[in-house]
Every structure is written in C-alpha cells, then in structure tokens.
Amino acid sequence: MKQFDPWPVFFRREWSRNWPFLVGFAITGTIITKLSLGLTGTLSLSLSISFVLSET
Q: Which residue ranges run through the membrane (predicted)?
C-alpha cells in the first residue's frame, strides 16, 4: 500500500494563501534594488564632480 504524502497538499494550500505576499515581496525588492543602484550611480557621479572641483 502506498503511503500518503502530505507535501503536495501542503504546498498547494500554502501557495494559495501566500502568493500575494511572495509576489509583493519580489516586486518591492526589485524596485528597491533598482532605486538603490540608480542612487549609487548618482552619488558616485556627484562625488567625483565635487572631488574634481575641490582639487582645482
């Protein structure tokens, strides 16, 4: 006799409950990553400009 495997039932039930949280977490992480990378580029540009101006 085959033993009952609860994992497929568990994952199906938990996915139906938690998918909005997981998708929102992924979208929020992507937005924060893009903004922080853009901010880093802007800061490095402004810091290099101020460094060049302070040397002259």
A: 21-53
Backbone angles phi, psi at 40, to 5 degrees: -65, -40
Which tokens in the block code for residue 37?
A: 């990378």
* Distance of alpha carbon 14 from alpha carbon 20, whole angstroms: 11
Amino acid in the structure at residue 21: F
Name the DSSP letter for residue 41: H
Q: From residue 3, give the alpha-carbon distance in Å to each of 6, 10, 34.
A: 10, 16, 47
Rounded to whole angstroms, how far apart are CA atoms 15 and 9? 10
- CA geometry: angle 23, 31, 22, nearest 5 deg: 15
pLDDT in tens, 4-27: 888 888 888 999 999 999 999 999
